[in-house]
Design brief:
single chain, two-stranded parallel sheet, 12 helices, 1% strand
């Protein structure tokens, strides 16, 4: 546990000195405040055009931020030779990866909290902005999205040999999961027999954490009717008492799977070395 804590604290120190982190923080905060200025006429409650815009902003920016910061952190250890030095100490691979994840999570959540906090303070001072429950749900959405993709970033950083390779893979994953996903989903479902469509939608949604998190948030905000009849069963279970616990369980399973695969790859490389 002390090894994991040491790695986490070390990662936090490095992360808060990383100019990339502050660039993302400034960008995220700027867009959040811009949305507040656009919506300076009154409060936003539930799912609306403004809350949908903020949701899409987080959907585009936060996964890319998590993928880049997380994968660069691991590939930086390889390029700078820090991993070879750390591996000479009695530091377990699992403690190394888990500590990395915890430290990076704190950095990412600090960025997200700063953006929401700045926007919330400006909202309170101006007397306009978002309803508290809506704002809270958007914050939870942003946190879940960041943690999901940080787990994926750990796997990318494990597979990539250097920062350029990590950048290429991270951008490719981001483009596939965020930009191209609707077109890919429509194309795949269009080639399937009708009875297969609902099971396929369920399976594919659980494979894409961005889509899963988006669906949960849209339904929680009261915008489930915009999803269409194919998602009726989703609306039922998300609104049920099991909706949030199941989502948290899926998130923990996803992150655990990514870290376990990364652990196996690092261990194999360590044994060869």
């Amino acid at each position: 546990m002390s090894e994991m804590g040491y790695v986490a604290v070390r990662e936090m120190k490095i992360g808060f000195r990383n100019p990339w982190a502050y660039s993302f923080m400034a960008l995220f905060a700027m867009f959040m405040v811009s949305l507040l200025i656009i919506n300076s006429q009154g409060y936003v409650s539930g799912y609306s055009g403004t809350s949908g815009t903020m949701l899409n902003l987080a959907l585009y920016l936060l996964p890319l931020m998590a993928l880049m910061l997380g994968s660069f952190s691991l590939t930086g250890e390889k390029e700078e030779g820090n991993w070879e030095l750390l591996s000479t100490y009695p530091l377990g691979t699992w403690s190394f990866l888990a500590g990395k994840y915890i430290g990076l999570s704190i950095v990412l959540l600090s960025i997200v909290s700063f953006g929401f906090g700045l926007s919330g303070a400006a909202s309170w001072l101006s007397g306009s902005g978002f309803d508290f429950l809506t704002y809270q749900q958007l914050l939870v959405f942003s946190i879940g999205l960041s943690l999901f993709f940080l787990g994926l970033a750990m796997l990318i950083g494990t597979l990539a040999r250097n920062r350029w390779q990590a950048l290429t893979i991270a951008v490719g994953v981001w483009f596939f999961a965020i930009i191209a996903w609707p077109s890919i989903l429509i194309a795949l479902l269009g080639m399937m027999p009708y009875p297969w469509i609902k099971p396929a939608v369920t399976t594919l949604t659980f494979l894409n954490p961005a889509e899963l998190t988006r669906l949960l948030t849209v339904v929680k905000l009261g915008g489930g009717s915009t999803l269409g009849p194919e998602y009726y069963d989703w609306m039922v279970w998300i609104r049920s008492t099991w909706g949030t616990p199941v989502f948290i369980g899926v998130m923990l399973l996803w992150i655990g799977t990514m870290l376990t695969i990364s652990f196996g790859l690092w261990e194999r490389g360590r044994s060869r070395g």
